[in-house]
Automatic annotation (TrEMBL):
Pfam families: GGACT. GO terms for molecular function: gamma-glutamylcyclotransferase activity; transferase activity. Keywords: Lyase, Transferase. This is Gamma-glutamyl cyclotransferase, AIG2-like. Residues 43-159 form the Gamma-glutamylcyclotransferase AIG2-like domain. Coiled coil: none annotated. Substrate binds at residues 43-48, 161. It comes from the Bacteria. The keyword Transferase applies. The active site is at 120 (proton acceptor). InterPro entries: AIG2-like_dom (IPR009288), G-Glutamylcylcotransferase (IPR017939), GGCT-like (IPR013024), GGCT-like_sf (IPR036568).
Length: 198
């Protein structure tokens, strides 16, 4: 599916000197809040929110912009734990040479943006951040979420949660890599249990 940008080009004029010094593609939400103005939310999803059916529970009127968005210089990890999801949850971690594939959404309704913040536990569990993602090699600024207090180790996700993510990944090679990573986490847990059993 080709990327359709009907929102228009976003211009950034403040704190240009600070921007040039930033090495990360992520920025604090507070530095880009648009002076309190309400704008449509262009949202990069890399976890369960990639899944159209699951995301519709939170943002039913959101419009799909691209199924093949990329966050470069980061990798997908599961270094958070959720009781509701029954295991590990997705996060992004800086890693040179890696790419996180995801979905780019357009969330127009402010009530749905608020619902998405509640779903992510923002700003206490996940925090909302700006991210420069790429669609067909074109840079696009969007919002995404990252864990506030990630764990030091990864936690295997539940089969249901993993299924939501894998089913929504458009790139076959990336899907296989994520599947292999999840399987390695599951295998590590099984081996640990066997070792603890003596």
């Amino acid at each position: 599916m080709r990327f359709v940008d009907r929102i228009g080009r976003i211009e950034y004029t403040s704190l240009k000197g600070i921007e040039r010094k930033r090495k990360s593609t992520l920025e604090d939400e507070e530095t880009r809040n648009g002076g309190g103005k309400k704008h449509p939310m262009r949202y990069f999803a890399y976890g369960s929110c990639m899944n159209r059916n699951d995301f519709a529970r939170t943002c039913p009127t959101a419009r799909l912009l691209s199924e093949r968005a990329e966050l470069r210089g980061y990798r997908l990890v599961f270094n958070g734990r959720s009781m509701a999801r029954g295991g590990g949850v997705a996060n992004i971690q800086r890693a040179q040479g890696h790419v996180v594939h995801g979905v780019l959404w357009d969330v127009q309704d402010p009530r749905e943006v608020a619902a998405l913040n509640r779903r992510e536990g923002a700003p206490y569990v996940y925090r909302r951040r700006r991210a420069r993602v790429y669609v067909e090699d074109r840079p696009v600024w969007a919002w995404t979420y990252e864990l506030v207090n990630p764990l030091c180790v990864e936690v295997p996700p539940s089969g249901e949660y993993a299924g939501l993510i894998l089913a929504a990944i458009a790139d076959p090679g990336y899907r296989q890599n994520v599947k292999a990573h999840i399987c390695s986490l599951w295998k590590g847990t099984r081996n640990k249990r066997k070792g603890d059993g003596g």
